[in-house]
Design brief:
single chain; nine-stranded parallel sheet; alpha/beta; TIM Barrel
Length: about 200
């Protein structure tokens, strides 16, 4: 069963990509982003796309330019996540038939991102908006808008966010930190999935 959780593997190294990807998928997390400020991120994305692309949605985070969208697409990535709203990045992602998840914080950014063709919205930093911020924003958004909370959302407060209208989550350091053993990543992933299942 797929959960609406995006694993954010900031700092992942290419030699870790396949084992970490398998661990996440086995735990029930099948959306994976490698931020582009990681070491050799396109190598990691390409390796996972080739090996795991039929089982998971693989792509990049911290995507800031259309050229970076092209680079991710060239190695087989299908998920584009950004910390910000940038119309050019969204347009290029849509042109290439990739999922586009721009970071938004205000109603103005949210509506601009949707108008540009975003697949869904990344509420970031979630810790600043909080569930109360999302609860205030949710009623004005179009009914089927997907909103994932990122930064400040995790196993301890999934329930609060879901009540506020979150459709899913991006999970970073609670799931993965550079140098972490793959068994620990697997254990964390299983606990996060269990917490999500309980809250949902």
């Amino acid at each position: 069963m797929s959960r609406p959780i995006i694993a954010i593997l900031r700092g992942l190294r290419p030699h870790e990509a396949i084992p970490v990807g398998h661990a996440l998928i086995n735990a029930g997390i099948d959306r994976i982003e490698v931020p582009l400020n990681s070491p050799d991120p396109l190598d990691s994305i390409g390796a996972m796309a080739r090996e795991l692309g039929d089982k998971a949605l693989i792509g990049a985070g911290t995507v800031l330019t259309p050229e970076q969208v092209d680079a991710v697409a060239d190695v087989g990535g299908k998920l584009i996540v950004s910390p910000n709203y940038d119309a050019d990045v969204i347009h290029r992602s849509v042109e290439l038939n990739l999922q586009s998840w721009p970071g938004v914080y205000t109603p103005t950014e949210a509506f601009a991102a949707l108008k540009a063709g975003a697949t869904g919205l990344k509420l970031f930093p979630g810790v600043m908006a909080g569930p109360t911020g999302l609860a205030a924003l949710r009623p004005v958004l179009p009914a089927r808008t997907l909103v994932f909370a990122v930064g400040g959302a995790g196993p301890d407060n999934f329930g609060d966010w879901i009540k506020a209208g979150a459709d899913g989550f991006g999970i970073g350091s609670a799931l993965y930190k550079p140098g972490m053993d793959v068994n620990e990543i697997a254990d964390r992933a299983q606990k996060i999935v269990a917490a999500y299942d309980e809250a949902a």
